[in-house]
Amino acid sequence: MTAAVAVAERVRRNSRSGDTVLAVALVMVAAQLVWKFELVRRTYFRQDDFMFIARGLENGLTWDYLMRIDFGHLMPGAFAIHWAMGRLGVHNDLLAHALTMGLQAAAGLALLRLLWVLFGPRPAILVPLGFALVTPMTIPGLSWWAVVVETLPFQIALPMALASHVLYARTGRLRHVLAAAGWAVFGMVFFVKAPFILVLAFVLTAGWLGGVARLRRAWLLYLGVLVPYAIVFFQRLFTSVQLTNETFEPRLPSPEVAAQSMWTLLSGSLVPTALGGPWRWQPIGDDYALAATPAPLMWAALAVAAVAVTVSVLWRRRAWLAWLTLLGYFLLADVVPIMLGRVEVLGPDLSGFELRYVSSTAVVVALVIGLAFIPVRGEGRPWRRPPSRWRWAWVPLAAVVTAGSLWSVAAYADRPLGRNVKSYVRTAEQALAQVPAGSTVLDTYVPDKVAFPLFLYDYALHSRVVGPAAPHPIAWTRRLSGPVTDPLVFDASGRLRPARIDGVTIPAPAGGDCTPVGPDEVRFRLPAPVRDAEHTVQISYLNGAPTTLSARLGAAEARAVAGRNLGVTFTTLTGGGDELVLRTLDGTTCVGEIRLGVPVADDEKPAVPPRPVGE
C-alpha cells in the first residue's frame, strides 16, 4: 500500500510539473510570435516574390506549373500559394503576414510536440525550444516571403513527422507511421530538403529508439514515399526550363571554392547564429542582409561550440551521434545543393553568409541540442558520469545566447526592411489605376531594390511586377515606335510622368520653320557624336498626309511612321555616329525638332500620383 501511495504521489507530482512546463512553453511560443510580428509586419515582397506571383498569374494550376523545378527547388505547395496570392490581391502583404505568423505558430507548437514526445514533460525541453524560438538563424528567411512558404512548412513537417515516428516506435500503431509518412510528404510538397526527415527518423531509431530492425514496415512505407519523389524530382530537375531558357546542368565548383564556401557557411553562419550571432549584418539593399560575423566573435563561437560538444560527449551517451547527425545534415542538406550551381553564381562569401540556406536547420539544431544533453524518455543509462556541480553551467551560457540573439535580431530590424519597396510598388500600382485606360507606358525595369534584372530578366519589368494590379488595360511597350501619343514612364519613386528623350537635340530651324524631307537623304548634324548603343529617336513633323520615314545612324537603319498634320513619331536605332540621316519612303514631310537618346521620366512635368504612397 505504501508503494502504491508513493507511485500515485509521483504521478501527481509529474502531472503538476508537466502542466507547468506546458504552460511555460506555450507562453514562450506566444511571446516569440509577438516579438517576431514586430519584424514581419514591416516586411514586404522582394525580388523572387514578384516573379513567383507573376508566374502564378500567367499559369493555371497545372502539373507543369506546380512541378517546375526552380534552380533546384521542387515546391509545388509554394507555387500553389503564389498562384492563390496573385488572385487574392496580387501583392497582399497583410495576407502574407497572417500566413507567416500562422505558420510560425504552428512550427513552434510542432517542435514542442516533438520535444514532449521524445523527452517527456521535463523542464529541460524548454532549452532547445527556446533556442529555436529566438535564434537569429531564421530571421532573414522570415523577412522573405518566398523563403517563408518553403521553410516554415518544413519546420512544421519535420517535428510532426518525427514525433509520429517516435510514437510508432514505442506503440507499433499503424496510424502513427502513416502520420509520419504523411507529414514527410507534406514537407516534400514545399521544400526540397524534406526527404531528409525520413533519414533523421532512421538515425533517431538507430541511436535512441531501440534499433531499426524491428520497424521494417515503417522503412518500407518510407521507401514507398521516397522513391516516387526521387523519380519525379530528377525527371523534372533535368527538364524544367529556367529563367535563363536553359535546363539544369550540374556543375561542381573547384575544391578550393567548395571548401571555402562550406567553411564560411559553417563558421560564419551556422555556428555563430546557433550561439546568438551574427551580431553584425551586411545589408543587401534596404530589405535584406547577410550575416557579417566579426572574426573575433566567429572564433569565440567556434571555441564555445567545441567545448559544448566535448562536454556533452564526455557526459552523455550517444551525444557523439547527435552531433554527427547535425554535421551530416548540414553537409548533405545545406552544403550540397549550394555546390550544385549557386556557389558559382554567388561566390563562396555571398553564399556562405546567406542565412536562408541554413534557416530550416534551426529545428534540427534544436533536436540535436536535446539529444546531446537530455535523456530520451525511457532511455537506460543515459550518462557516462554522475552529475557534476558544473551541470548548471548552461544557465549563464543560455542567458548570453538569448541576449546575443535579441541583439542580433534588433540589429537586423534596424533598417527600412520593406518600407521603400512597398512605397515604390504601391505608388506604381496607384499610378496605373489613375491614368486613363489604354495609356501607353514604357515597359522599363523596376529599380534593383525591387527586383534585380540580372537575376529575374523580364520578370523585373514593370508590366510583370506592377502590371497585374492595373484595374484597366495598359498599352505596354518595350520601345517607343511610331506616332505614340503622350507616352508615360515611371520615375524613381514609382510615379508615372510624361517621357522625354534624354540625350542630344537637333533644334528646329530658326523662326519656327521645319526642314523638308523627301525621298532623297537629308543629313542632320548631331551637336556631339553618340557612341554605339541603342538610341530612341523622337522626330517632330508636319505632314499633309501620312508617310513613312527612314532614319539612319551610322550603319543602323529603322523606320518610323508619321501621321497626318502636326505630331511626333519615334523609332529605335542601335548604332553610333555624328549625324542622323532621314528620308521618306513615300511622300514628303517637314521635320522640326529631333531628339536622340534614352527615354526618361520628365521631372518637370506633373506626376501621377502627385506624391509617392507612404510619404
Automatic annotation (TrEMBL):
Official protein name in the record: Glycosyltransferase RgtA/B/C/D-like domain-containing protein
Record's signal peptide: none
TM region positions: 20-37, 97-119, 126-146, 181-207, 219-238, 297-315, 322-343, 355-374, 394-413
Record carries keyword Transmembrane: yes
Keywords associated with the record: Membrane, Transmembrane, Transmembrane helix
